[in-house]
Amino acid sequence: MIKYKWCVCDMDGTLLNSDNVISKDNEVALKKLQKMGVEVIIASGRLDLMVKTYIKQLNLKGPVISCNGGLVRNIETGEVLYSKVMDKIAVKEVTTYCNNSEIEFIIYTADLVYSTKNNRVGKRYADRNKILLQDEQIPIKYIDDKVMANINDIDAFKVLLVCEKHEDIILLQKHFSKYDNLTVVSSATGLLDIMASDISKGKALEILSKKSNVSLDEIMVFGDNYNDIEMFKCAGMPIAMENAVEDVKLAAKYITKSNNESGIAYAINNYILKE
To answer: PANTHER family under this entry (predicted)?
Structure first.
């Protein structure tokens, strides 16, 4: 009898390989857990509306932790289980700074993604929309002068800064970390996530576990980057990908194979099911 009730998976660099695909091995292993009564939950820096394809592939029915914990929403009913939007003045200051400094960015809201036209992440989402079914497409609106003029009308869960050089991200992280009302964390090379204060995947997982009466000791988590560390600190079984940053590996109980080697499946079959 397996002792875990939840299997929580980060997306990029963890559940998804470098082609943004859930491998067959990962799919089979996660569905095996589901048959054993384990609920699979996605915990992503992305908005939940951006992972509909993967939700459908894994036949998920419950909550999704998105925007690094800024929004927790039931994917079947649409019920918001937890949310915390950014301070509107802070959103304006961050986006104005980026605009003036020619830094590309994306704003995540409950039902829409605002993106500058030239950034690589926004372009990837737009290109992906071309091959997705209509109900799986990412709702994107491009940022122009009108959007900037009405920025105070936007309820943002996250602002994602996109830079070509990670050195620029490090400088931006230092700059915005001075704000008491913001949480600032790098989620991948060249990306900086900015959310409301006291937001993390770990905090969201704690809130969700209390609501659902699931002990944190009964939760396994998979991740690879800095925005996964708080989740690793609170879960009973934190497992890092081989491609994870060193700080994530240090917080893990196991280190599995990389995201390009179906590391989640390897860990499930070789660590979890053999406990």
So the answer is: HAD SUPERFAMILY HYDROLASE-LIKE, TYPE 3 (PTHR10000:SF8), PHOSPHOSERINE PHOSPHATASE (PTHR10000)
